[in-house]
Amino acid sequence: KISKNQFRKEDSYWDTHTIGGTDLTKTKRLIAEVGDNKRIKMIGDLTDIVTSGYIPIGKYMQFGRFWQAFSSNNVDGLRLRAGFRSFISTDDRFRTYVYGAYGLKDKLFKYGVSGKYLISYRPRIGIGAAYQDDNLQLGSFVMHDDTNLDFEKTTNFIIARGENYYLTRNKKIQGVINYDIAANIRLSVFGTYQSLSSASEENFLIAYRNPKTGDILRDYDNFYTGTELTFTPGRKVFGYGVEQRYGKKLFSTYTLKYTKGVSGISHSQFDYDKVQILASKPIPMFGYGILHANLEAGKVLGTAPLIALAPTPANQSYSTAKNTFALLDYYDFITDTYINGYFEHHFDGFLFNRVPFLQKTRFKSLLFGRFAYGTLSEKNKTANMSNIVFNSPEKLYWEYGFGIENIGLGNFRFIRLDFVWRSDFNDVNGVRNPKFGIRLGIEPSF
After folding, report:
1. What is the average per-residue pLDDT within 321-343?
2. What residues form DSSP beta bridges with 278?
């Protein structure tokens, strides 16, 4: 089977061609009765809402993600957001998403709209396009999302530490083609045109001095295109829609991405090349838990504006976020050549199960460590004019700590607590960073 409705027939067809007689009829009746049971439907619907973050509205639409409805930063103030996606089933061949957001402080409306369509089931070929006009925090990740178009990269929270003025007003048009060369090998080709300006110029300047002409650009346009190759050996995929689902089996992910900045396209003014590599591998330790190892490296070739460089990904919220540094502020480190590593060892019940009192709690333990190393060339320091001090982790920066997970009641155990420390570093921007922190993670799973 390769498509959603490939074997759909009328009941009379199956009654004629299926062996089973009376016993099969009883089974079909039982399945129908269970499916129509109000209590079972309520439990199933509630589980879907909590794990997906979307609330059904009628038969063809969902509201969400509901945990992004309220957030806050220094530019927007209290930020209200409402998003909707088309949804008939998880196997929809077409998916569209639209959201709108409003800041009570800057009194400006932001929005985004995207659409994806699965052209072919075999081979799998999908296309997508998106437009977004919003204040984005580009200092929270290194590898930009140019293939999924899901608007999920966000660092606005109700409660966060430090200052979050460092937002970029980004009006961008994106397009992507995804082609599955073979099972778990995907080739993507993408293009993005963006108009960029600072969301709060008095606090965060993204100006650029053209090395050839000496002209100073306070806001500018940038067009880039590129390709991404992703290999996920051992991944179990199911579903026939444009957005597939993945099984729980452990699998590795290897991504090679090339991005080319192109001047002369409309008002685009930058020529640069960027190469990035991501390797993620879970390593079973034979009774001692699982080590999750992630390495990311990249290099920017040529002179590029701040928004195309590689800031070390920071997380100023009090919640956990994958592949970020919990005790860094946005743009504490800026690089054009970098390597970052993220390592987590989940002991599962190996430690706590051996302590009599703790054994009853069903808690699980983990250890983690992450590091950042990178440099920034003099030509990029000279070309970029900002009111933040350009700093690079040329002396290795690292964070480490331990966590407790599987916290909850009964079988509802989706809370995780992390205790984080960091190495000392030359903190030159904004509010002084803490040397210790406690972070909360919530991952609904049942």
Report:
1. 95
2. 255, 296
* C-alpha dihedral (388, 393, 395, 397), degrees to nearest 10: 110
Position of tokens 């480190």?
333
Where are the chain's structural domains?
128-442
Q: Cα(106)–Cα(156) distance, rounded to whole angstroms?
A: 15
pLDDT at 144: 85
- Return the CATH number of the domain spanning residue range 128-442: 2.40.160
C-alpha torsion angle, residues 71, 72, 73, 76 (rounded to 10): 100
Burial call 93-113: b when 16+ CB within 10 Å, e when fewer: bebbbbbebbbeebeeebbbb
d(CA 392, CA 45): 48
Q: Is the pLDDT of residue 48 over 70?
A: yes
Cis peptide upstream of residue 123 (ω within 30 degrees of 0): yes
Q: Which residue in this structure is represented by tokens 């089996």?
A: 249
446: which 2 tokens? 């049942």
CA–CA distance, 265 with 223 (Å, rounded to integer): 7
The DSSP bridge partners found for residue 79 are 71, 103
Q: Which residues in 240-332 belong to E strands, given as ranges?
A: 245-246, 253-261, 272-284, 290-301, 310-311
> Which run of H or of E encompasses 379?
helix 378-383
Task: Enumerate residues 6+ apart whose C-beta is below 8 A from 151.
Answer: 83, 97, 99, 112, 114, 130, 132
CB distance 226 to 263 below 8 Å: no
Q: Give the integer Cα–Cα distance in Å for 202 and 387.
A: 9
The CA–CA distances, whole Å, from 146 to 163, 257, 314, 397 equal 27, 10, 20, 28
pTM of the model: 0.90
The dihedrals phi and psi of 24, each to the nearest 5 degrees, come to -65, -40
3-class SS shares of the chain: helix, strand, coil, % to 5:
15, 45, 40
DSSP 407: E
251 vs 28, residue with greater confidence? 251
Which token pair is 235? Answer: 């991944």
Is residue 296 a contact partner of residue 278, using CB atoms and an 8 Å limit?
Answer: yes
- For residue 431, what pLDDT band results from cuts at 50, 70 and 90? confident
Rounded CA-CA distance 310/313 in Å is 8
Alpha-helical runs (H) found in 63-122 = none
Record the tokens describing residue 65, joined without a space.
């993600």
Q: Which residues contact 230 (CB under 8 A, 6 or more apart)?
A: 185, 186, 188, 253, 254, 255
Q: Give the integer Cα–Cα distance in Å for 443 and 361.
A: 18
What is the pLDDT confidence band of residue 402, given thresholds at 50, 70 and 90? Answer: very high
The CA distance from 276 to 259, in Å, is 9
> Would you call the peptide bond into 245 cis, given omega within 30 degrees of 0 as the criterion?
no
